[in-house]
Design a protein that fits this description.
Helices cover 34% and strands 30% of the residues. With 244 residues, it is an alpha+beta fold.
Amino acid sequence: MDWIAAIIGLSGMLFIMYSLPLIKKAADIWRLRENFIRLQAIPIREIKKHSGMCKIKGTASQDAAPLFSLFDDTRQLYYRTKIYPVSRKKFVKSWMSRKASNFKIKDSDGGTLFVNASTAESEHGRFIVFHRDIEYPLLKFCKKDMIPEKWRDNLENGAAIEEYLSEGKEVTVIGHFTYEKGRTALTVSAEKPFVIAECPDEVFLLLHLRFFSRMAFLSASMLLTGLIQLYMLFVIMLPAQRNF
């Protein structure tokens, strides 16, 4: 019965390996949510008086050459686009693009926060912004020169999801801030993530439904595996040992 014990041990190790990163990510999201709701918004001009994570509210606007959607002439400050095939004849991995321009956020007191494109494109930042489903009628107008050649053939039977921040939108920002050339700017790193959101604070957690669904699926899988292991232990292994 050593092979049964080995299977049980291996499955336990695999679940630990998969669950720990998810638990850490859940904890990070929870902390961001708590800060997003708990922190009081301050004027941008007063950021220098505060240390650590701060919260500001303002209106986003362009600070560089305009950025346009992959599908039409919608002016955007940031977008994240996922194109995927809808044909079920064969599996094709989805293609994703994240782009941003340099933009700024100005509050009601006249303070200005600058967001560099490289900061906005970081994997450590979260945008909770407008998103839309792109169906084929609009997808056929996609700027094909901005998509890898091997993916262009998949557009005919494809669809896309685009989330973007457009000019003139009121946003709430939490994050860490620095000074670049005398200007207040948003900074980002693994230890200093940020959130830029258009929606009300209360919706923050709900917009991570996909992630928490994965957590629920993992928990259900762990429970099912645990029940199978208990069955193998009490119904197969222990009776077998008694027979010997």
